[in-house]
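Notes from the 1:1 (GR / supervisor)

We went over the backlog. Supervisor wanted to see one worked example end to end before approving the batch request, so GR pasted a single chain during the call. The sequence is below; no edits were made to it. Supervisor asked that the structure be written out right there so they could see what the output format looks like.
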Amino acid sequence: MISYPQRLIFKHRGGSVLVDSNLLLLWFVGVFRRELIGTYKRLNTFSSEHFDLLAEFLKSFRKIVTTPNILTEVSNLSGALTDHIKPHYFASFTNSLDLLQEEYVRTTEAAANPLFFRLGLTDAVIATVAARPILVITTDFELYYRLQGLRVDVVNFNHQRRFSA
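Structure output shown during the call:
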């Protein structure tokens, strides 16, 4: 018997997946220098094995979708890297952008989403993009819970991590 997350992955396989900020940060840092994952303060709850799990998960999809809001959060979170690493990391970050499909949602449209008042702009943008056939992956329980309530296909990566350990 396959689990609910596995059914969602199978349903969207070959399609699109939207990756939330913390997981996209994990992916960018892992692509750049995976040994930073366990030591970088923004990723101290992850291991290089979690990066491998995420990378394997993303291989199931034709498009990895992001938004300017998510990329801004990832860029800001990346700012905590040490100064001698930043230029090399951001060069890798820039090279990896070609692997993503960036979707734009007007702020006024996102602010009209009911999640805006509970979760803020980035999560409201995610909910707006997720209103069409796309799978969302996140580690944010509140976002996960709210998207499920809206009948959006969403996977909590923390559940995947537990099953893979």
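Supervisor's comment: The chain is about 55% helix and 10% strand.
Batch request approved.
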